[in-house]
Every structure is written in structure tokens, then in C-alpha cells.
Records
---
Amino acid sequence: MSFNFIQKDMQLHELKPIYKKKAKKRVGRGGKRGSYSGRGMKGQGARAGRKFQPIIREIIKRYPKRRGYRFNSWREKPITINLNVLEKSFEAKAKVSPAILAEKGIIRKQSNKLPAVKILGRGELTKAFVIENCEISKRAKEKIEKAGGEIKLT
């Protein structure tokens, strides 16, 4: 005895998911979580469709708004080095940059990055230096140029 199965095309209404639907948790209707079900007692927080302002806004509003106060005013301050340190540590016509200063152990890397360096004008300078990638005070700039040094900003 043979059966002849007629294969018909599947229709949209015959499609079924391969997994069961997860029932949505209905909170605040008694049951295992207690009568209030984690919503507390009366009030806005206990109601359906509650909407609160973001709490961060309230924190920001409490900050003092003083003259000159800005949220983005924080910036890493450069490490300061005086000319007398350069005079002792380097020979004439030497190149001075944050990388070379870190190699010589005059400055340290901060979280594996070279920090910004500012050269200040304390001390006398008799040697000419080539200074690269450093901030320089006005007084230090005058002394470096007077000694025959060069400043390269890149």
C-alpha cells in the first residue's frame, strides 16, 4: 500500500515560532512579589507610565555657578622645568624635547604618555639648545635666543 502525499505551499498563517513566547512580567498585581511588588507605596513611582526627570539634571543644577567656573575647565598642567636644569643636564647645541627629557630621567611618563613640558626662565643660560615641542615662558624664550638657541614649535 503506498501513500501519495501532496506537498502544498506553506501559507503565512501556518508559520510558527521555534520557541515559546516569554510572558511579560506584570508588576503590581499581587502575587509572589508582594502587594506593592517593589514599587513602594502610593505616589508617582507606584503609578503606571511614571516619568521622572533624569536625576543627573538635578545634580548639575546644584553645582555652584561662580564667575569663571566651567565644567570643561580641567586640563592637565604641563610639567615645569627651569633653564638651570637644562644647563646642568645637556651639552651645547643639544636637542631638548619631552621624549629626550624622559630618556634622561628629568621627567616621567604619566600613564604611559609623555606629558606636556613648559620651560621657565629661572637660572642663567650659557649654552645654545634646540628646543622642540615644549611650551616656553617669555623670559625663558629671551634667554634661549640670547644664548644663540633655537625654538621649534610643532
Note: The chain has a mean pLDDT of 83.
---
Amino acid sequence: MKKTLFTVLCGFLVVVPAIAGQLQGKVAVTGLRDAAGAVVYIDAIPGKTFPPPEKNPVMDQKDIEFQPHVLVVTTGTTVDFLNSDPFLHNVFSPDACADRFNLGSWPQGKRRSHTFTKECFATLLCNVHPEMEGFIAVVPTPYHAVTDAAGAFTIKDVPDGTYTVKVWHPKQAGASQQVKVSGDTTVNFQLHK
């Protein structure tokens, strides 16, 4: 009886999840129309690594735009680039951290892929449509979010602990803070050019 009770209790201990909350807040920017497109993320956690997702995220090319404008992925993730427009598109990045890749051009409905092996804030361009610009933020943890037009963000399922939280924006200087997450936690940032 005691052995069975001990086994059952051990089973409960294994399935009890770590305490997690959410990190939320706002990023204010100066000199821009709105605060959309800032990437808020938890920096590398010593001793922790995170596998890439099983399903590749997609960066679409639709209506002569990269959609989403900013895509955040963890290091080691393969991104699929889809062409949803009825004409040729190209995807390339001039950034060394993204291996200066160029996927060539391809027609509607087709996709090509690239694996992002290093932390990076990569600019995406299309040599067929020079007005197109998008970004892929490659960060070390799965704890990240992109701000909406009001600058609001929410990062869910963040385990309690103290972290370095960073903000990157394509048009502003970045910022970082040490943040102690305990359940639901709020942190705000102010960015400048």
C-alpha cells in the first residue's frame, strides 16, 4: 500500500507543470506613426537550449508585401518563403548573420526555404520589387512577441525567474532590462532613434 501510494505521488510530481505566467507591457517609440513591429524577447538563458519548431513558420509574399512584416523565430528554425502573388518574387538578405542568402525567383504557389542558424535581425528584400522590405528576427528563446500598433505585447507561458528582456525595432535603437517574472508581470520600454 505504501509503495503504491509513493508511486502515485511520484507520478503527480512528474506531471505538475512549472509555474508560468505571462510577460506583458508596452513599447513606446518616438517619431514614428505607430509602435508596431518591435520585437520583445527574453535573451539567452544560461544552460537552456530550445529546439526549432516541428512545423516551419511561413513568410508570405502577398500584395507585393512581406507578410508578416516582422517574423520572429528561434535560432535553428527553417522558414518557408511562399509566393502568393500571380507573378514572380525573389527573397534575399544582404545580412551576414543570415548567410547573405538569395533564394532566386519563383512563381505563385511555390515556396523555398532557408534555415537561420545564428541570432540575427535579417532584412528581407525582393530584387523583382525593390519597394518590398520585411524582417526576420532570430532570437535564442521561444519567449517572444511582436508589438501591435499601440506598442502592446504579451509573451505567454514564461516560467518564473529573472531574465534579460530585450527589444529590437527596425527603425529605432534597441533597449534591454533585467526583469523578474513572477506570474503575470508587466514591463514597459521607451525607444528612441
Note: The two ends are 68 Å apart (CA to CA).
---
Amino acid sequence: MTNKNKNLIIGRKTCNWRPPVSRRKGNFKISGKVGSVNPMFIVLFFAIIAGVLYLYSINGSAVKGYQIKQVEKEIGGLKQENEKLKIREAELNSLYKIEEESESLNMTKPNEIVYIEEKGPVALK
């Protein structure tokens, strides 16, 4: 065996080639420069940007959900108030309430009811 080829080991009918020391798995170095920027810095920068955008979208969704809940509560309250007002309207439009109010305003019941019938060209048109 010659001294020129130290990476080639021959023995027992097998040939095992070993890469040079600088390319072995344990000693392999990645040159971490792309131009003048470290690739890890770029990855970290994009990870931070993605995290901020994610938090912004989640926060926006939470705010929208809270606003929807508030509007739903307001709608429920308005529906209840509407039902109460409908009941109050029916009470005020009842004949009993109208008669009661007419007495409190010193109104009297008419004794004679006279219907006016108009027979003229104006009424026929």
C-alpha cells in the first residue's frame, strides 16, 4: 500500500472508503453565510413574522366573537322589550281601557246616534 492513498482501507476481501476528515459527519461544517446574512437569522425573522400574523388573526377573531355575543344579547333584550310593548299596546287598545279613559276625561255617552247620509254628485264620485 502506498502513502498517497491513505483513505482507502483494504482488508478481508472488502474495500471501505472513508471520506477525508473535513467531510466526515462529525466534523462537517456548514458555511452559514448567504451573502452577508446568516440563514438562521432569515428563518428566525420569518418565524417571528408568522407568529405575529397568527396572533393578530386570532385576536381579531376573538374580538369579533365578543362583538357578536354583545349584539346577540342586545337583540334578545330588544325582543323582550318588543313583546312587552305589544302587550301594553293591546291593553291600551282594549275597549275597557278606552271607556275608563273617557270617564276620566269627563266624556259622556251619546244618547242619540245620527247618521248623515249625503246624496249628491260628490258622494257618488
Note: The chain has three helices and two strands.
